[in-house]
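Why does residue order matter? Because the sequence determines the fold. Keep that principle in mind as you read this record.
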Amino acid sequence: MEIAELITPESVIPNLKVTSKKQALQELAKRAAALFDIGERQVFEVLLEREKLGTTGVGNGIAIPHGKLADLGTLYGLFARLERPVDFDSIDERPVDLIFLLLAPENAGAEHLKALSRVSRVLRDKGVCDKLRATDTPEALYSLLTDQTANRAA
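Structure:
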């Protein structure tokens, strides 16, 4: 599962303006609903339910909120670089400024896990994250996220 199979340049948000975790999830649900033709409220509720199980703030300023929806036919991703970091209840208690939303069909067991693993592996690379934080165009962010040379080194 490659990142390019999950996101498009249109699903990359270079400067998302939010002030809280809840607002970030709401805004991501809104954007996902518009891009993937799914219900905004449904996406938001799935994300909130997942957060109740434990934070998706994985540390180092990164969050990977995710969930499964019955109405989806394939996996979708959405990447946002926040204008300002927000508290995300992260495991390292640091605020989050890079968010990769992952939505999967309800029956996507192994594929969902492979996608989560791939996203996590790419975002664990400090060099990739430093470049993502220094870039503010959707095209450049998309290129950094999908560059296979950089991702294989991760």
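The radius of gyration is 14 Å.
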